[in-house]
Design goal:
Blueprint: H1 6-14, H2 22-74, H3 76-94, H4 104-109, H5 120-132, H6 146-156, H7 179-190, H8 197-212, E1 217-220, E2 229-231, H9 238-248, E3 257-260, H10 270-283, E4 288-291, H11 298-304, H12 306-313, H13 318-330, E5 335-338, E6 342-345, H14 355-360
Parallel strand pairs: 1-5, 2-3, 3-4
Antiparallel strand pairs: 5-6
Helix pairs in contact: 7-10, 8-10, 8-13, 12-13
Length: 370
């Protein structure tokens, strides 16, 4: 170290030398440098962590705001309709009743001038559907037996009166359904092939017969599969249904499903979704549970797109297809009870509603709640 200049000494000091005794002081200086580096690393990590947390918090706030806006827009029309229903219901309750105990305005507006039900929803549905339904038929079936109604449905939606054209290249189905038919049907729909109206009517009629056997509350069990998949609103989004089946598998004895209503309207493939769900239900009636949502409703279908979709895809037979859809939707169960513990129902229930109340509803007469 002899003869080193002050600059040289400084250079040596920079590398950890402070005197001729290089060991001890060198170790001290290196330790200080290492501590400084570790502090910088920790501070950098904390800054990155803080930035990341703020970034994720902003994303979450944006997601919640977006969801709130979406919900307010999506259900604005339905809330307006509900308010209108409540308004007229309250108004009728305040009116002076006639000798039959009903508001006089109901007798005045009734076509038959007979006493009508105090249940406003039944009156509104019959009047509204008579004005807007493509079939123009009265909804109330009180004067008809169920057998007569069935005969009327078959007469107005008779698939035997329709022939399948020789050039038809879409899927063919027969009953009872088979698993291979279900797979072929799904593949055909994926290939943008449309089910012939004859097969669609046959599918709806078969589904109607099976739905009539069910009560208002489905009884689902996980004793065999030890699982069950509950799916919410599809709203005509066929890709969502395909994604569910791709990740979770098709319905089967070991893979039961509950579809909790609102599988039509808004999206452009409501018909295809209904076809797949009803075909799966016919194949696995004890493993495929379909609840009715507020969009399985003729008036909602008029407003939110399902009627337009039927008219676009089946223009020559739209009247009979819509009539049959309207009837089939009225036979859908209201809720599903899983293992007698979990209740799945579209829209929820109040704290005063019991299962016995749901079971007593004559669901077939409730064609619309709008």
């Amino acid at each position: 170290m002899k003869g080193l200049s002050s600059d040289g000494f400084s250079r040596l000091r920079y590398h950890g030398f402070t005197s001729l005794n290089m060991g001890c002081n060198s170790a001290k200086y290196v330790k200080v440098v290492e501590d400084t580096k570790s502090d910088r690393v920790i501070r950098s990590a904390l800054l990155i962590q803080k930035w990341y947390r703020r970034y994720m918090a902003r994303l979450e706030a944006r997601r919640r705001c977006t969801w709130e806006i979406f919900q307010s827009i999506e259900y604005a029309g339905e809330q307006d309709q509900l308010k209108l229903y409540n308004f007229f219901n309250d108004m009728l309750q305040q009116m002076e009743p006639d000798k039959c105990g009903q508001p006089k305005i109901l007798r005045a507006l009734s076509v038959s001038k007979r006493p009508v039900s105090m249940d406003l929803s039944v009156w509104v549905s019959s009047k509204t559907l008579r004005a807007l339904s493509v079939s123009k038929r009265p909804v109330s079936m009180d004067s008809l037996t169920l057998e007569a109604e069935d005969a009327n449905i078959y007469r107005l939606s008779n698939p035997d009166a329709i022939t399948v054209e020789p050039m038809y290249s879409g899927p063919h189905i027969t009953f009872p359904m088979t698993y291979s038919q279900l797979q072929s049907l799904i593949q055909a729909i994926k290939s943008k092939k449309r089910l012939h109206v004859k097969y669609l009517l046959e599918l709806l009629l078969e589904t109607r017969e099976e739905l009539k056997k069910l009560g208002n509350i489905n009884q689902a069990t996980t004793s065999i599969s030890h699982k069950i998949t509950v799916c919410g609103d599809l709203h005509g989004k066929l890709n969502d249904l395909f994604m569910i089946f791709h990740k979770n598998g098709l319905p089967s004895v070991d893979n039961p499903y509950i579809f909790n209503g609102d599988f039509v309207d808004r999206g452009s493939n409501s018909v295809e979704i209904v076809i797949i769900l009803f075909a799966s239900f016919l194949l696995y009636p004890n493993e495929m549970y379909i609840n009715r949502g507020n969009h399985e409703d003729h008036i909602m279908n008029i407003r939110y797109g399902f009627v337009k979709e039927i008219n676009r895809k089946y223009p020559a037979h739209a009247t009979m297809v819509l009539r049959l859809f309207e009837d089939v939707f009225s036979w859908l169960p209201i809720a599903t009870l899983i293992d007698r513990k979990l209740l799945v129902v579209h829209g929820g229930i109040s704290d005063t509603t019991s299962l016995s109340d749901i079971a007593k509803i004559d669901r077939h007469k409730v064609r619309t709640r709008v």
